[in-house]
Write a structure and sequence with these properties.
Blueprint: E1 2-5, E2 9-12, E3 32-33, E4 37-38, E5 47-48, E6 50-55, H1 71-79, E7 84-89, H2 91-94, H3 103-118, E8 122-127, H4 167-178, H5 180-197, E9 203-207, H6 222-246, E10 253-256, E11 278-280, E12 283-284, H7 287-290, H8 301-316, E13 324-325, H9 335-349, E14 352-355, E15 384-388, E16 390-398, E17 403-410, E18 418-420, E19 428-433, E20 436-439, E21 442-445, E22 450-457, E23 464-465, E24 468-469
Parallel strand pairs: 6-7, 6-14, 7-8, 8-9, 9-10, 10-11, 12-13
Antiparallel strand pairs: 1-2, 3-4, 5-15, 15-18, 16-17, 17-22, 19-22, 20-21, 23-24
Helix pairs in contact: 4-5, 5-6, 8-9
């Protein structure tokens, strides 16, 4: 819950019902951003924005799996105004031996989803892999599903991403994509997950595989290989897995990823995913920054990334949610500018994002041990409309003044607009102008009315509804 403070106070509870989001292209009030990209909407036609973080435990396995994720994660996400979490789960923990699924692991996932539901956090279940899986010292695809044809693998702990280009790892991806028995096993794994959690109120959807990679052909450069792998291997895989999910879950979203090469400004070669509820879920990382370099505004990386990443959703008319983003070293001199420009970019074309990663400590962690944002990451916590009941005319956020503005034409469906405010950050005042009223922390408006909403730090302005001062 978040408290809006002004003349009075009220509580706004963000409550997006799982399983009721519908494709934006078919919704009455669907808005388009990024020059023709649909927005996520719910069953009442409200335009949805997701903002949050990845939640993970890559260290613990077996009996201790997921132990690092606690209720505190979701309580703190809620308190900082977030409504979204991408939960990493691992096939090697779910099915450690072929055909034997861990009931204990499924219970642990369910407990995490229950915490998320308590704090109004929508969850994307991500079948995560790093460098394929435990056969190469990482997490993801089980060892029993790893086939290398005896090709070599040399670990490189100082540059773990380079391990994707080891011959054994690349061949393992080829077998995963092309061997019929492994295709069936991966689909069965997803049927188990979707069947277990399709009715859970916190579940938003399923990310079919994290950062899929593949095997480079002789003489291929990386962009050419990535487009071929995406077209010929990853697209069929996504369609197989989407079909597996749909065999048990007709409602929740299916999230599909390209290779991470899109981060270099390379448009994806993914083809059409034949499912009515698809979300394109690229990641937003820069190679130089991942290696520890500062942000270089003159390099034009954000601009090239945005151009590359928007081509697919424009062509295929699907919404975008960025599944991971955020540099390792966020305290370098230009990182404040990076956060401002990255957030502005994602807000132009996406329906939301999940930063990497919500944990308590150093490295990629969003917050320190006391729960305080680490340098520059506080910029991710700002006011926004989690659900807009109408056609959005304009939306903006000024980080200098921390002021959010929204203008929309109200729909005739009787739904309410909901704001999400980071209550831990400061007190807020909200101004609403137009034929609208506030009830239970939600903005209700007359059908067809033009509504303007302004949110800023207290002291700000008196809340106004249809020209009259109203406590919020």
């Amino acid at each position: 819950m978040r408290t809006f403070r002004g003349i009075g106070a009220f509580v706004c509870t963000v409550a997006l019902a799982a399983g009721v989001l519908t494709p934006a292209a078919n919704a009455e009030n669907a808005e388009e951003g990024g020059g023709g990209i649909p927005r996520l909407t719910d069953d009442r036609g409200r335009v949805i924005t997701l903002r949050g973080w990845n939640v993970e435990d890559k260290t613990n396995r077996g009996e201790k799996a997921l132990a690092a994720i606690t209720e505190r994660h979701f309580r703190d996400l809620n308190a900082n105004g977030f409504n979204f979490a991408r939960l990493l789960v691992f096939w090697d923990d779910l099915e450690p031996r072929r055909g034997q699924y861990s009931a204990a692991y499924l219970r642990k996932i369910e407990r995490i989803l229950d915490w998320a539901d308590t704090y109004d956090i929508q969850v994307l279940i991500d079948a995560h892999q790093d460098v394929f899986g435990p056969a190469f010292g990482h997490r993801g695809i089980p060892e029993w599903a790893t086939r290398t044809d005896g090709l070599p693998f040399t670990p490189n702990p100082d540059d773990w991403f380079s391990e994707y280009f080891q011959p054994a790892v690349q061949r393992a991806f080829t077998h995963l994509y092309e061997d019929p028995d492994l295709q069936r096993a991966q689909a069965a794994m997803w049927r188990v997950l979707a069947d277990r959690f399709e009715g859970h109120p916190a579940v938003l959807g399923y990310d079919l595989i994290n950062e899929p990679m593949g095997e480079l052909g002789e003489g291929e450069d990386l962009p050419t290989a990535a487009r071929r792998i995406e077209r010929d291997q990853i697209t069929p895989m996504h369609n197989r897995l989407a079909d597996a999910v749909r065999s048990v879950d007709r409602d929740n979203w299916v999230f599909v990823e390209p290779t991470p090469i899109v981060g270099e400004g390379v448009p994806t070669g993914l083809g059409k995913i034949k499912d009515p509820k698809v979300v394109y879920a690229p990641h937003f990382y820069n190679t130089a920054m991942e290696a520890g370099a500062d942000y270089d505004p003159a390099a034009g990386w954000i601009e090239s990334y945005e151009a590359a990443v928007t081509a697919y959703p424009k062509e295929h008319r699907v919404p975008v949610v960025v599944g991971e983003w955020g540099p390792l070293n966020n305290a370098l001199p230009n990182m404040g500018r990076f956060y401002r420009e990255a957030l502005a970019s994602m807000n132009r074309y996406s329906s939301g994002w999940a930063g990497y990663v919500w944990c308590y400590g150093g490295g990629y962690c969003a917050v320190d041990g006391a729960g305080k944002f680490r340098t520059n990451k506080e910029q991710t916590a700002s006011p926004y409309a989690s659900a807009v009941a109408g056609r959005v005319r304009s939306e903006s956020y000024d980080p200098a003044t921390r002021t959010y503005r929204l203008s929309y034409v109200a729909s005739g469906r009787g739904a309410a607009t909901e704001l999400s405010l980071p209550s831990r950050a400061r007190d807020w005042r909200v101004a609403v102008e137009g034929a609208a009223w506030v009830l239970g922390g939600r903005i209700h408006a007359r059908p067809g009315a033009r509504i303007s909403v302004t949110v800023g730090p207290d002291p700000f302005v008196s809340t106004v509804v249809d020209g009259r001062g109203v406590s919020m």
